[in-house]
From TrEMBL, chain A:
Keywords: ATP-binding, Nucleotide-binding, Sulfate transport, Translocase, Transport. Its EC number is 7.6.2.9. This is Carnitine transport ATP-binding protein OpuCA. The keyword Metal-binding does not apply. PANTHER family: SPERMIDINE/PUTRESCINE IMPORT ATP-BINDING PROTEIN POTA, SPERMIDINE_PUTRESCINE IMPORT ATP-BINDING PROTEIN POTA. The lineage of its organism: Bacteria, Bacillati, Bacillota, Bacilli, Bacillales. InterPro entries: AAA+_ATPase, ABC_SmlMolc_Importer, ABC_transporter-like_ATP-bd, ABC_transporter-like_CS, Mo/tungstate-bd_C_term_dom, P-loop_NTPase, Sulph_transpt1, Transp-assoc_OB_typ2. It comes from Paenibacillus cellulosilyticus. It catalyses: a quaternary ammonium(out) + ATP + H2O = a quaternary ammonium(in) + ADP + phosphate + H(+).
UniProtKB/TrEMBL annotation, chain B:
GO terms for cellular component: plasma membrane. The keyword Membrane applies. One of its GO terms (molecular function) is ABC-type sulfate transporter activity. It is a multi-pass membrane protein. The lineage of its organism: Bacteria, Bacillati, Bacillota, Bacilli, Bacillales. The chain crosses the membrane at residues 7-25, 45-75, 87-112, 124-144, 189-215, 235-255. This is Sulfate transport system permease protein. InterPro entries: MetI-like (IPR000515), MetI-like_sf (IPR035906), Sulph_transpt2 (IPR005667). PANTHER family: SULFATE TRANSPORT SYSTEM PERMEASE PROTEIN, SULFATE TRANSPORT SYSTEM PERMEASE PROTEIN CYSW. CDD domains: TM_PBP2. Signal peptide: none annotated. Keywords: Membrane, Sulfate transport, Transmembrane, Transmembrane helix, Transport. It comes from the Bacteria. Its main location: membrane. It comes from Paenibacillus cellulosilyticus.
UniProtKB/TrEMBL annotation, chain C:
It is a multi-pass membrane protein. The complex is composed of two ATP-binding proteins (CysA), two transmembrane proteins (CysT and CysW) and a solute-binding protein (CysP). It comes from the Bacteria. This is Molybdenum transport system permease. Keywords: Cell membrane, Membrane, Molybdenum, Sulfate transport, Transmembrane, Transmembrane helix, Transport. Its main location: membrane. Part of the ABC transporter complex CysAWTP (TC 3.A.1.6.1) involved in sulfate/thiosulfate import. Probably responsible for the translocation of the substrate across the membrane. Part of the binding-protein-dependent transport system for molybdenum; probably responsible for the translocation of the substrate across the membrane. InterPro entries: CysT_permease, MetI-like, MetI-like_sf, ModB_ABC, Sulph_transpt2. It is found in: Cell membrane; Membrane. One of its GO terms (molecular function) is ABC-type sulfate transporter activity.
């Protein structure tokens, strides 16, 4: 279902939960609403579902304004954070609930429910009650229940929050595959960037009620549009004194500009190991942390501290070792603007320096 | 310390609860089984028990209906500002703090034959005070908070997400109530009904004031006990009291059972 | 759309009915009694409550209700503790019997006490020989009040005892505290809110009690006539303004207590 949202606002008393949010979602896409807790993601989702009334703004499904339509008539499926399964009903009855309301025949209901039970891998559990199921199974029931009446749009509120970390990854993949197979437009809310990056076709980053950026996970990672997005996605270190970083000296001319540097922007090696020596500067290993598949290296450059990773295949470093540090690029931002800058010396190596 | 506290607890229960219960029983049977039957088969006793039964049925029905609806509104309604909800919530407990005598007096003051409403209704041929409707109103006043206080915590605990889930699946409020909300609050309601019944047939002060205690007309079981004692007819009083006490003990067992079910569900 | 429209009218009707019921049944009568007591102006109100019989009845009620509440606080805390902490034969039975005074009609409760302590009973005659009287005197009223309000403190203390973190207590033991010291310094402070609110509720119920007391008090004006019985007498003698005046004294007092209890509970739940 094609969805368009324009200038959506929601206020709870004095609290402005959602501010001027506008976006469109193409049919069949899987969208992740990502942001810190309390940022307004769930409010947006609930307004789409009709469980909350917008203070102002329009919501359109397939070009029709649905603001005044109650949740019953929006043709949506909603998976709640705590699943909200009907405690006193079996798995079968939970899934059949929406179908019974549509007054389908007994055979039709049975057929559809068994179809979903099979699809969600719950075969054999259909006569159990929710309290007899594990967290992952409950999540599947909630999912099947939401899908049963064949909604046009599936909304999921923190679908994996209440599940053990181990099963979570497994369930994520399962859910992504299933949504693709069913081909339903879906929006899910999460505060876990890894989850959003892994599952969503497109991510919308929400912070303090505002939509900060919308795009594919790769776009958002590669070219964050706001300092918040840059800081929120991926790992990074903020450097206040840009002048100390070789190749970015001229950026220090802009008052109040700071640099955000991701681990993968940095290349390190023993002195002389790096090819573009002209663009590199001297540093020192401060700390080493073993991270299972690689080393995390804390580097000291002047009085700035940077973080990067180093392959286990390379020579093992020790705290205190002298290093050659090359910063390939940095995300620069000040109060008015933000942009990505490549290392100037790398682009334009000056032989004099060699 | 354990050796001291347990016997003391037993002694208090025996003195305060068990001996009095036995005493009512032996008192009622003081003149033998025949005396007990005679006390109960007096026309005024039969009439009084019938009145008590009628009031209990009517009040329990009304109180359950309004109690369930009011709890739903006080917990869920979005059309009530939360400040107002808090205010209503605290007003709700007032009948607990009001002496039943005062509760009865309030109704006499509002609807008695000397008041505007009372005389108006009197002219229309309806009498409220010193008649059945007044007694029902008085008992409703006294039992009002019981149902609501049982249901509200249950509603708060289950939260609204199951109901919201039902609405996203296409269910409207009536269907949602019967299929989703009702099964969750059912045992709370049953517990509330038991409490209301207990209070209804035990109510004395409010009913005494409102009914005028007219023999064979507005006399209830408890006011009959009172009148028998005042007339030094203790054996007769005991007979009726025994029936009431037996009923209480039965309700107590029912309450225990409902409480257990409520915890399970 | 038609269906939606109809359901909107329905819910509007339901809402108004329930709210109207609430207001008519609870709010209007309470307002009514306050206005009635001042219906003849300030002077008759003042005269009604300054009648020695009236204020003696109110004072007596407050005094006896206070004694009953204290007794209940003591035995209630003890019983709540015993029922929660020790496992012994009959514990479940006793625990269900706690609620009996709530389930039993108060008039029946009064009759029980009359039978047990009356002049013809064993206890009554022994007491008489020893030179003090129970029934138709203050002790009987206190007994009736204690009986009727028996469950309050127990039921208020039990949930707190259940919630109590056992490790706190154990920590005290490991630091060498004696059982008595642990109880006073660790356990008692955490159940105190329950003890207090239970005691307050018992007090306010004892203030309001009529059925059990009227049968055993003898109702001698100025001596064993308590407030609610006094009000009843005024109603019977058709002095509704006087009855209302004493009523609002008692009511205001009860409301105050109820308000304090709800404040105590609100503070507890906000912690």
């Amino acid at each position: 279902m094609h969805i368009e949202v324009r200038n959506l606002n929601k206020q709870f008393g004095d609290f402005h939960a959602v501010r001027d949010v506008s976006f469109t979602i193409e049919k069949g896409h899987l969208i992740g609403l990502l942001g810190p807790s309390g940022g307004g993601k769930t409010s947006i989702l609930r307004m789409l579902a009709g469980l909350e009334t917008p203070t102002s703004g329009d919501i359109e499904f397939l070009g029709q304004r649905v603001n005044d339509l109650p949740p019953q008539e929006r043709g949506i499926g909603f998976v709640f954070q705590n699943y909200a399964l009907f405690k006193h009903m079996t798995v079968f009855d939970n899934i059949a609930f929406g179908l019974k309301i549509k007054k389908q025949s007994k055979e039709q209901i049975k057929k559809r429910v068994m179809e979903l039970v099979e699809l969600t891998g719950l075969l054999g559990f259909e006569h159990r009650y929710p309290h007899q199921l594990s967290g992952g199974q409950r999540q599947r029931v909630a999912f099947a229940r939401a899908l049963a009446p064949e909604p046009q749009l599936l909304l999921l509120d923190e679908p994996f929050a209440a599940i053990d970390a181990k099963i979570r990854t497994e369930l994520r993949t399962w859910l992504k595959e299933l949504i693709e197979r069913v081909g339903i437009t879906s929006i899910f809310v999460t505060h876990d960037q890894e989850e959003a990056i892994e599952v969503a076709d497109e991510i919308m980053i929400i912070n303090k009620g505002r939509l900060e950026q919308k795009g594919t996970p790769w776009d958002i990672y590669k070219s964050p549009e706001t300092p918040f997005v840059a800081g929120f996605i991926g790992e990074s270190t903020i450097i206040e004194n840009i002048g100390a970083i070789r190749g970015f000296e001229e950026a220090a001319a802009w008052q109040g500009t700071k640099a955000l540097i991701r681990p993968e922007y940095i290349e390190i090696g023993k002195p002389g190991e790096i090819g573009l020596a002209s663009a590199a500067m001297e540093g020192r290993v401060k700390q080493l942390h073993f991270r299972g598949s690689e080393w995390m290296v804390e580097i000291e450059v002047g009085n700035a501290k940077l973080i990067t990773y180093r392959s286990l295949e390379k020579e093992v470093l020790h705290p205190g070792d002298a290093l050659s540090v090359l910063v390939h690029r940095a995300y620069l931002f000040n109060d008015n603007d933000s942009w990505i800058m490549e290392n100037k010396l790398k682009e334009d190596p000056m032989p004099i320096f060699i | 310390m354990k050796k001291v506290w347990i016997p003391i607890t037993y002694i208090i229960f025996i003195i305060l609860i068990i001996i009095p219960l036995i005493r009512i029983f032996t008192g009622a049977m003081g003149d033998g089984w025949g005396g007990f039957v005679d006390a109960l088969s007096r026309p005024e006793a039969l009439h009084a028990l019938m009145m008590t039964g009628l009031i209990t049925i009517v009040v329990t029905l009304i109180n359950t209906l309004f109690g369930v609806m009011l709890s739903l509104y006080l917990v869920r309604a979005e059309w009530l500002p939360s400040k107002l909800k808090q205010l209503l919530n605290s007003i709700l407990d007032l009948p607990f703090a009001v002496s039943p005598i005062i509760g009865g007096l309030m109704i006499v003051l509002l609807l008695g034959p000397n008041t505007a409403i009372g005389s108006l209704l009197n002219d229309a041929g309806i009498s409220i005070v010193y008649a059945f409707p007044g007694m029902v109103i008085a008992t409703l006043f006294v039992t009002f908070p019981m149902m609501v206080r049982e249901i509200m915590p249950v509603l708060q605990e289950i939260g609204s997400s199951q109901e919201e889930a039902a609405s996203t699946l296409g269910a409207y409020s009536w269907y949602t109530f019967w299929k989703v909300t009702w099964p969750a609050i059912r045992w709370g309601v049953i517990y509330g009904v038991v409490l209301t019944v207990a209070r209804c047939f035990g109510e004395f002060g409010a009913v005494l004031v409102v009914s005028g205690n007219i023999i064979n007309k507005t006399q209830t079981a408890t006011t009959l006990v009172y009148q028998d004692v005042e007339n030094f007819n203790v054996t007769a009083a005991n007979g009726v009291a025994l029936v009431l006490a037996a009923f209480s003990v039965g309700l107590l067992l029912l309450m225990e059972w409902a409480k257990k079910r409520k915890e399970v569900h | 759309m038609n269906f939606k429209f109809r359901s909107r009218w329905w819910s509007f009707g339901f809402r108004s009915t329930v709210m109207l019921y609430f207001i008519l049944l609870i709010v209007i009568p309470i307002i009514g009694i306050y206005t009635q007591s001042f219906s003849l102006g300030w002077t008759p109100f003042y005269e009604s409550i300054s009648d020695p019989l009236a204020w003696k009845a109110v004072l007596l009620t407050v005094k006896l209700a206070f004694i009953a509440a204290i007794i209940n606080i003591l035995i209630g805390t003890m019983i709540g503790w015993t029922l929660n902490r020790y496992k012994f034969a009959g514990r479940r039975l006793l625990n269900s019997l706690v609620d009996l005074p709530f389930a039993l009609p108060t008039a029946v409760g009064g009759l029980m006490i009359l039978l047990l302590l009356g002049p013809n009973s064993a206890v009554g005659s022994i007491a008489e020989k020893l030179g003090f009287e129970i029934v138709f005197h203050e002790p009987a009223i206190v007994v009736a009040m204690v009986f009727v309000t028996f469950p309050f403190v127990i039921r208020a203390v039990q949930p707190l005892l259940e919630e109590l973190d056992k490790s706190e207590e154990e920590a005290a033991y490991t630091m060498g505290a004696t059982k008595a010291k642990t109880f006073i310094q660790i356990i008692f402070p955490s159940i105190l809110p329950g003890v207090l609110s239970g005691g307050m509720l018992a007090f306010s119920r004892a203030l309001a009690e009529f059925g059990a007391v009227v049968l055993v008090a003898g109702n001698i004006p100025g001596k064993t006539l308590i407030a609610s019985v006094y009000i009843y007498g005024e109603i019977e003698s058709d002095n509704s303004q006087g009855a209302a005046a004493v009523s609002i004294l008692l009511l205001t007092f009860s409301f105050l207590i109820l308000w304090i209890v709800s404040r105590v509970q609100a503070r507890r739940s906000s912690k």
